[in-house]
């Protein structure tokens, strides 16, 4: 009887302490995200949206906060931001109406193994048109699972002169991360109302 109880307890302990299979969460470069797949849900408002579960956002898309990353398939009703998507369906942006100066919204990619690339780089499209107070944006890189971040790009102010203006392409050299597994963080820092800065086609 004692032997049976010991064996059962050991089996339960093994189930509890077994580590999750984190390797399934690491993506291999080249990595492309257009935000158009079924795992991205754009409701057309600041609620009822969904991000792909491999991506991390703070605040999350389901949070009641105004200043957060959410997908959208049509131009924001304020007249700021892009009128059209770059890749065919959705883009990601931060709503600014009702936000407070200094509020931060982070969007973080899954871990990406770039060891197969001879010249790692980040490409994405951005659209920045506002009524004069669009968020600042930092693009940061981590190669230690998000413990530390290094800033690789920063932008302030408008890029486009209208909602219908073409998207702007951005290139960031990541040669210093050859052989690494990295994450990219898109951070928007609010300057208050109004201006809906957007990104699309991250690769």
Structure description:
This protein has 203 residues and is mainly beta. 8% of the residues lie in helices and 29% in strands. The protein is built from 1 helix and 12 strands. It has one helix spanning 2-17; strands spanning 27-28, 56-58, 69-72, 91-94, 104-108, 112-113, 121-127, 136-142, 150-155, 168-173, 181-189, 198-200. The strands form 2 sheets. Strands 1, 2, 5, 6, 8, 9 and 11 form a 7-stranded mixed beta sheet that branches. A 5-stranded antiparallel beta sheet has the order 3-4-12-7-10, with no helix packed on it. A hairpin with a 7-residue loop joins strand 8 (136-142) and strand 9.
Cα-based radius of gyration, to the nearest Å: 20 Å
Order of helices and strands: HEEEEEEEEEEEE
Rounded mean pLDDT score: 85
Number of strands: 12
Structural class: mainly beta
Shape label:
globular
Residue share in helix:
under 10%
Ranges where pLDDT stays below 50 over 5 or more residues in a row are 1-24
Beta percentage is 25-35%
- In whole angstroms, the N-to-C terminal distance is 59 Å
Number of H- or I-type helical stretches: 1
Task: Profile the largest sheet.
Answer: 7 strands, mixed
């Amino acid at each position: 009887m004692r032997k049976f109880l010991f064996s059962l307890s050991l089996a339960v302990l093994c189930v509890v302490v077994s580590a999750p299979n984190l390797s399934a969460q690491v993506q291999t470069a080249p990595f492309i995200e257009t935000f158009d797949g079924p795992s991205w849900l754009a409701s057309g408002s600041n609620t009822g949206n969904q991000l792909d579960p491999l991506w991390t956002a703070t605040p999350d898309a389901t949070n009641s906060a105004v200043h957060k990353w959410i997908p959208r398939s049509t131009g924001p009703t304020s007249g700021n931001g892009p009128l059209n998507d770059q890749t065919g369906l959705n883009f990601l942006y931060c709503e600014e109406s009702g936000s407070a100066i200094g509020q931060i919204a982070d969007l973080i990619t899954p871990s990406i193994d770039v060891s197969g690339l001879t010249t790692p780089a980040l490409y994405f499209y951005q659209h920045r048109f506002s009524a004069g107070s669009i968020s600042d944006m930092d693009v940061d890189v981590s190669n230690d699972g998000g413990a530390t971040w290094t800033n690789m790009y920063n932008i302030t102010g408008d890029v486009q002169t209208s909602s219908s203006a073409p998207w702007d392409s951005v290139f960031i050299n990541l040669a210093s991360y050859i052989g690494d597994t990295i994450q990219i963080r898109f951070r928007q820092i609010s300057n208050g109302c109004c201006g809906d800065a957007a990104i699309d086609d991250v690769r």
